[in-house]
Design brief:
The protein has 138 residues and is α+β, with helices and mostly antiparallel strands. Helix content is 22%, strand content 22%. It has a 4-stranded antiparallel beta sheet with strand order 2-1-4-3. The chain is flat, with a radius of gyration of 15 Å.
């Protein structure tokens, strides 16, 4: 099992257009907006993959590197207070073969989503193909 990393930063208003977030929608494969189901990231083309890791610690480190630069613009003070504790749990979840999803509202009605999706096989969608057969990335 390995994990693929995905990230999205954009206007939170784009998420309300949930049609393109559904796997059957004609624009699904090209839309950068996160899909409604985490496993559906695996149905997107390989260029959406930001990294692939066999090691859950490395996957968790990448996850944290995507979020920490935005700490000061997290819209909710509670999110800023608990961020490190939340990030500390990512490695354990990934080590257990779980998907990890993190989503934060930022100032200016922006939204940051960071995701680790298990692959080969996916825990709940083992029939989904691996989007990339390449080597693990840093």
């Amino acid at each position: 099992m390995h994990h693929h990393g995905y990230a999205w930063l954009g206007s939170g208003l784009h998420q309300v257009r949930d049609g393109v977030r559904r796997a059957g929608h004609p624009e699904f494969a090209t839309s950068p907006v996160p899909p409604l189901e985490l496993a559906h990231w695996l149905l997107r083309p390989a260029p959406f993959v930001r990294g692939t890791w066999d090691d859950p610690e490395q996957a968790a480190e990448w996850f944290g590197r995507q979020v920490r630069p935005h700490r000061d613009v997290l819209a909710d003070a509670h999110d800023r207070e608990v961020l490190e504790a939340r990030l500390a749990a990512v490695s354990d979840s990934a080590a257990g073969g779980e998907d990890v999803a993190g989503g934060w509202w930022l100032s200016g009605q922006r939204y940051l989503g960071v995701y680790l999706v298990g692959c080969r096989p996916h825990r709940f969608r083992p029939e989904y193909p691996c989007p990339t057969a390449g080597p693990a990335l840093p």
